[in-house]
Amino acid sequence: MQIGNITFDDYPVFLAPMEDVTDISFRLLCKEFGSDMAYTEFISSDALIRHVNKTRTKLEIKDEERPVAIQIYGKDAATMVEAALICEEARPDILDLNFGCPVKKVASKGAGAGMLRNPDQMLEIARSVAEAVKIPVTVKTRLGWDNDSKIIVDLAEKLQDCGIAAITIHGRTRAQMYTGEADWTLIGEVKNNARMHIPVIGNGDITSPELFKQAFDRYGVDAVMVGRASIGAPWIFKEMKHYIKTGEKLPPESFKYYLSVLKWQILQSVAQLDERRGILHSRRHIAASPIFKGIADFKSTRIAMLKATTISDLFSIMDNIFCF
């Protein structure tokens, strides 16, 4: 599969853009475990052109994580073009346009998945940005606004005509948010549209190596994007790669090994931010990690981990977790 001049091996898997999750340290960790490309946290075009410092820091990328995509969102073409040109100066490999974020504060203002109610504006933005920058421009979106307006098959073809280099489709409508099950049938329909020639990347509910393989076998997508299943479990990329190459599940590592990965991730966040903010940033991964699932009487320990404010206290709690 190829996006612009970037060539990927067979069965590529990408780390999805996630707010407060896909910072540099997590992107690098997922790459180490086999992610073929990662996306930054999504970035507000309005904040970017206003030179908001916190937003500007999200543009930082490292050569070791390449290929890497910067993702932006916004609701008008002029602002998105200006933001895109700022992003291009950060030298990402790909610029991705977010037309799929369902959260109210974004979608209600007409950005993110809100664009699904105004496809003409979405197309204008896609065309304008693609013409303005020299790097490949891609799009991430959803099936439609709600169950009565699943427009993705026709929309994907029109976005392709605007000059985008690939499209990622999350198999839910905006109305669904993250509830219910992702519907991959329309993703497959987009991929099997004879008029589509750009890569189609599927996203939604890929939580295991088996489902990862099924996405390629059943729906024919060019790549798969993994989001929530990677939080607290970056090794999922290695498990998926092993399964699709061998047809067998990768033997599990010890609890101590998985715990050491989480510790390393926490230390990297602390190094990038500071102790307080680094621990706060890591709490989502600690809370979501599947390695603690099934441990008897674990609630109080989980609460203690999430309340810890120093590395010393947090690691002391972790080191005293007993797991067979």
Structural notes for this entry:
The model has no long low-confidence stretch (mean pLDDT 96). The chain has 14 helices and 11 strands. Strand 8, helix 7 (152-161) and strand 9 (166-170) form a beta-alpha-beta unit. The strands form 2 sheets. An 8-stranded parallel beta barrel has the order 3-4-6-7-8-9-10-11, surrounded by 7 helices. The protein has a two-stranded antiparallel ribbon with strand order 1-2. With 324 residues, it is an alpha/beta fold. The chain has helices at 24-32, 45-49, 53-57, 77-89, 104-107, 119-132, 152-161, 185-191, 209-219, 236-246, 255-272, 275-288, 299-307, 311-319; strands at 2-3, 6-7, 13-15, 37-39, 43-44, 68-73, 94-99, 137-142, 166-170, 200-203, 223-226.
Compact description:
The protein is an alpha/beta fold and 324 residues long.
Blueprint of the fold:
Elements (H helix, E strand, L loop, with lengths): L1 E2 L2 E2 L5 E3 L8 H9 L4 E3 L3 E2 H5 L3 H5 L10 E6 L3 H13 L4 E6 L4 H4 L11 H14 L4 E6 L9 H10 L4 E5 L14 H7 L8 E4 L5 H11 L3 E4 L9 H11 L8 H18 L2 H14 L10 H9 L3 H9 L5
Parallel strand pairs: 3-4, 3-11, 4-6, 5-6, 6-7, 7-8, 8-9, 9-10, 10-11
Antiparallel strand pairs: 1-2
How do the strands line up in the largest sheet?
A: 3-4-6-7-8-9-10-11
> Separation of termini?
42 Å
Write down how many β-strands occur, each being a DSSP E stretch of 2 or more residues.
11
Do you know the CATH architecture of the largest domain? Alpha-Beta Barrel
Fill in the keyword field for this structure.
alpha/beta, eight-stranded parallel beta barrel, 324 residues, 11 strands, 13% strand, 14 helices, TIM Barrel, 2 domains
